[in-house]
């Protein structure tokens, strides 16, 4: 069974430098928090902090993001609701332009193929997913990123092409896992109509 990669601190200085947020990015996130909340960045707690951190290139590389995001996954695993962020309109962390919601993973439909497994169990085969849920971040009405999480703290973030263009750098683990999964798939045989 495939064990999902964790986003714990990266082992080499070169890799850490690649994932470390730039000062400009940190400043932009703080400004974004102030703009979204209509309040000083210091008041961006719970839902607002979670929303901003999950939209970052790598939340685990931002020290201020680690405690609230780990708490989020701890709370979600225990059935607690997703935190809200009052940004002008009522809703689950939404101001009409930016929101984040959690969905429970369900293989094979709501689980990336590289993390989906077919289990041969009695009374018949069943699918499983390496992750428990996915938090989707929507910005300006479009999906920005989806962070797959498990109660053990393991996460991987899937960024959309638009998010990658906007961010410039991001944690590439999701893409690397997908490429490895794709390379491991059997090559179709000529004439095979499956």
Binned strand content:
15-25%
Protein structure class: alpha+beta
Q: Order of strands across the widest beta sheet?
A: 1-4-5-6
Cα gyration radius (Å)? 18 Å
Element order: H for helix, E for strand: HHHHEEEEEEHH
Mean pLDDT: 76
Shape: globular
Largest sheet: 4 strands, antiparallel
Tally of separate helices: 6
Total strand count, please? 6
**Tally of discrete structural domains:** 1
Helicity, in percent?
A: 25-40%
Low-confidence stretches: 1-45, 88-95
Write the layout of secondary structure elements.
Elements: H1 13-19, H2 23-37, H3 47-54, H4 66-77, E1 98-104, E2 116-119, E3 126-129, E4 133-139, E5 142-149, E6 155-159, H5 161-167, H6 173-184
Antiparallel strand pairs: 1-4, 2-3, 4-5, 5-6
Salient structural properties:
6 strands; two-stranded antiparallel ribbon; single chain; four-stranded antiparallel beta sheet; globular; alpha+beta; 18% strand
Descriptive notes:
The protein is of the alpha+beta class. Helices cover 31% and strands 18% of the residues. The chain is globular and about 55 Å long. The two termini are 25 Å apart.
Give a brief outline of the structure:
This protein is α+β, with helices and mostly antiparallel strands. 31% of the residues lie in helices and 18% in strands.
């Amino acid at each position: 069974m495939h064990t999902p990669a964790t986003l714990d601190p990266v082992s080499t200085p070169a890799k850490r430098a690649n994932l470390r947020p730039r000062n400009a990015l940190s400043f932009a996130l703080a400004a974004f928090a102030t703009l979204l909340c209509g309040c000083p960045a210091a008041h961006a707690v719970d839902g607002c902090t979670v929303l901003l951190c999950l939209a970052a290139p790598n939340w685990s590389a931002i020290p201020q993001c680690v405690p609230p995001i780990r708490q989020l996954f701890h709370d979600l695993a225990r059935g607690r609701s997703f935190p809200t962020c009052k940004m002008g309109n009522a809703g689950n962390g939404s101001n009409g332009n930016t929101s984040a919601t959690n969905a429970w993973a369900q293989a094979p439909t709501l689980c990336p193929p590289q993390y989906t497994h077919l289990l041969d169990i009695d009374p018949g085969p069943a699918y499983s997913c390496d992750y428990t849920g996915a938090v989707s971040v929507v910005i300006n009405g479009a999906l920005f990123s989806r962070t797959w999480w498990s109660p053990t703290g393991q996460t991987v973030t899937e960024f959309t092409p638009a998010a990658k263009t906007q961010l410039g750098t991001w944690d590439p683990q999701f893409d690397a896992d997908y490429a490895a999964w794709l390379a491991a798939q059997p090559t179709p045989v000529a004439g095979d109509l499956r």
